[in-house]
Amino acid sequence: MMVDDSVIALFRSRLSEMGWEALESGLRTDEIMKPHTSFRVGGPAQIYAEPSSTEEIAALISCARELGIPFFLMGNGSNLVISDEGIDGLVIRLGENFSAIRSEEDPENSEYTYIYASAGTLLTRLSSFAAKAGLTGLEFASGIPGSLGGAVFMNAGAYDHDMSEVLEKVIAISSSGEVETVGKEDLQLGYRSSRFMKEGGIVTEAVLRLKKGDPEQIFSQIKEYTEKRTKSQPLQYPSAGSMFKRPAGYYTGALIEQAGLKGFSVGGAQVSEKHAGFVINTGNATASDIDALVRKIQATIKEKNGVELVREVRFIGRGFDS
Ligand SMILES: Cc1cc2nc3c(=O)[nH]c(=O)nc-3n(C[C@H](O)[C@H](O)[C@H](O)COP(=O)(O)OP(=O)(O)OC[C@H]3O[C@@H](n4cnc5c(N)ncnc54)[C@H](O)[C@@H]3O)c2cc1C
């Protein structure tokens, strides 16, 4: 439900009263989300904030809760389709403002180093930080355009590796508002899934444990992955990467291609000619175009192969229910 302007005004004054003047003055209203997503679609968020500390995130959430304002937390917007009609309530984006990285050698085993990074840190930057420090384990993440928080939430991965291999623990604000430390054994990391997907909560920081490696090998592995990606993925078009989770026993791209849907389009949304597992924005796609195309693909594959394609990309905002 739309939040009333008077409630938005109350939200602002409540933040100021609590001493968060800088945060309050940085708030934007009716912020168009299109430039904040890799798909380049999405209407306005009623209230939009880019906090720079865990305390600021906690303040935003506690004020929003107090006033019954719904909120949505995003990272780099690379796994989202945001509704053309926009998002009700507050959008909190963890980005550059919240992207500190530091490292420390494991005091118990000098072969390993811990990296502490804030949730808004881009995976590409983190992977390059690790490579430059001669640490191995994050090469797979060098081409994933998400934030660290989004990567924990999705258990992002590529080339048979994923975040579960390098995460040691995560600092998070739980759905009840407590700051908690969650060890790797409790993160429930599975194929593109995590505890946060099931139970809610906001990742604010993650601690990774990486092994010292041979810098030459690390850089050459990154180069190989980059070449593979550039060759096989339509990176020149806006998208959110693979649209669907991989169904057991099948390759999504092959299923879609065999169904004759390669190149099929609805408005400006198209099944990529280069990789049928990707839906791309050819220039003027709307979120509704993407949604309609995805439904068409799902219905066709269900009918032809009896396979349910499950969306990996999250559809958020008015009219979308995931
Ligand atoms: C060209 C391209 C290639 C891609 N390749 C890959 C790939 O190889 N492997 C892969 O796994 N993915 C890939 N992706 C998808 C995407 O980059 C990942 O899913 C990434 O982890 C999403 O991170 P994000 O910060 O962009 O999250 P967003 O898109 O901003 O959000 C995604 C979800 O994560 C939640 N979230 C974000 N931050 C937090 C946080 N701090 N705490 C709790 N929840 C949070 C959001 O609420 C939302 O539900 C690709 C995308 C593109 C565009």
Walk me through the topology.
Elements: H1 5-17, H2 21-25, E1 28-32, E2 44-49, H3 54-66, E3 71-74, E4 80-82, E5 87-93, E6 101-105, E7 112-118, H4 123-132, E8 135-136, H5 148-154, E9 157-158, E10 161-162, E11 167-173, E12 179-183, H6 195-199, E13 202-212, H7 215-232, E14 239-242, H8 252-258, E15 265-266, E16 269-271, E17 278-281, H9 287-305, E18 314-316
Parallel strand pairs: 2-5, 3-5, 4-18
Antiparallel strand pairs: 1-2, 6-7, 7-13, 8-13, 9-10, 11-12, 11-13, 14-17, 15-16, 16-17
Flavin-adenine dinucleotide binds at residues 38, 73-80, 94, 119, 144-147, 149-151, 153-154, 156-158, 196, 202-203, 235, 239-241, 314.
Keywords:
single chain, alpha+beta, Uridine Diphospho-n-acetylenolpyruvylglucosamine Reductase, domain 2, Uridine Diphospho-n-acetylenolpyruvylglucosamine Reductase, domain 3, Uridine Diphospho-n-acetylenolpyruvylglucosamine Reductase, domain 1, 3 domains, six-stranded antiparallel beta sheet, 9 helices, 30% helix, binds flavin-adenine dinucleotide
Explain this structure to me?
- By secondary structure, the chain is an alpha+beta fold.
- The protein folds into three domains: 5-93, Uridine Diphospho-n-acetylenolpyruvylglucosamine Reductase, domain 2 (2-Layer Sandwich); 98-219, Uridine Diphospho-n-acetylenolpyruvylglucosamine Reductase, domain 3 (2-Layer Sandwich); 234-316, UDP-N-acetylenolpyruvoylglucosamine reductase, C-terminal domain (Uridine Diphospho-n-acetylenolpyruvylglucosamine Reductase, domain 1).
- 30% of the residues lie in helices and 25% in strands.
- The chain is built from nine helices and 18 strands.
- Strands 6, 7, 8, 11, 12 and 13 form a six-stranded antiparallel sheet that branches. Strands 1-2-5-3 form a four-stranded mixed sheet, with helices on one face. The protein has a four-stranded antiparallel sheet with strand order 14-17-16-15.
- It is globular.
- The model has no long low-confidence stretch (mean pLDDT 97).
- The structure holds flavin-adenine dinucleotide.
